[in-house]
Design brief:
Number of helices: 7
Order of helices and strands: EEEHEHEHEHEEEHEHH
Structural class: alpha/beta
Helix content: 25-40%
Strand content: 15-25%
CATH class: Alpha Beta
Oligomer: single chain
Distance between the termini: 21 Å
CATH topology: Spore Coat Polysaccharide Biosynthesis Protein SpsA, Chain A
CATH architecture: Alpha-Beta Complex
């Protein structure tokens, strides 16, 4: 991948149950494309390989054929546990040491920010935003918009075996570079990258404000 000196795999976590949305949000259309394909194509300039984490693979086969770079499906090695299991599976199958992890419901990720974060990964096992949340007046990690190296696998697997499902649980075990609010704001002043689409209202707002690149 240009700009960071190493090849990059990208994992899109598309295995959630979408309970609050009421339907599988990965296949809702944004800008004329299913959300999962919209996100995949948005990050094509950065990725050498795309991986989709899903336990419902039937709808993905045609998507894999439409994409211009190698793409594959992975199922959770530990189903029904949550996104940490999806990250474990993605790291296990990725062709490259560095893996970009994104939740499928983050359609407005910013390539400049992702490139900056990837460039920080040379000396770290994980690169994760930690943003100030004015509602709680505290810093909040964004582990589903992050980079992880294959060497994180041991810690992730150990946490899952211990019954610890929180995505951030293993970050204390590895060399983590936190990307703080002021750094993120240089590339994404509106923090659009972290707008999740969880409910029908979120979706309506996204469609209303969507501007294709």
């Amino acid at each position: 991948m240009a700009g960071i000196g190493e090849n990059l795999s990208a994992l899109i976590l598309a295995g959630g149950l979408s309970r609050r949305m009421g339907q599988d949000k990965a296949w809702l259309e944004l800008g004329g494309l299913p959300l999962v394909e919209h996100l995949a194509r948005r990050i094509l300039p950065l990725a050498d390989e795309l991986i989709f984490s899903t336990n419902r693979p039937d709808r993905f086969e045609s998507l894999l054929q439409r994409l211009p770079i190698p793409a594959l499906l992975v199922a959770d090695q530990s189903p029904d546990i949550g996104p940490l299991a999806g990250i474990e599976s993605g790291l296990s199958r990725a062709s490259h040491d560095l893996l970009l992890v994104l939740a499928v419901d983050m359609p407005f990720v910013q390539l400049g920010l992702l490139s900056y974060m990837a460039g920080l990964a040379a000396d770290f096992q994980a690169v994760v935003p930690k943003l100030f949340d004015p509602r709680s007046a505290a810093l909040t990690a964004e582990p589903l918009h992050a980079f992880y190296r294959r060497s994180c696998l041991t810690s992730i697997s150990a946490r899952l075996e211990a019954g610890q499902r929180r995505v951030v649980s293993f970050l204390a075990d590895v060399r983590t570079r936190w990307v703080l609010t002021e750094e993120v704001a240089r590339f994404d002043p509106g923090f659009l990258s972290f707008h999740n689409l969880n409910t029908p209202l979120d979706w309506e707002i996204a469609v209303r404000h969507f501007e294709p690149n």
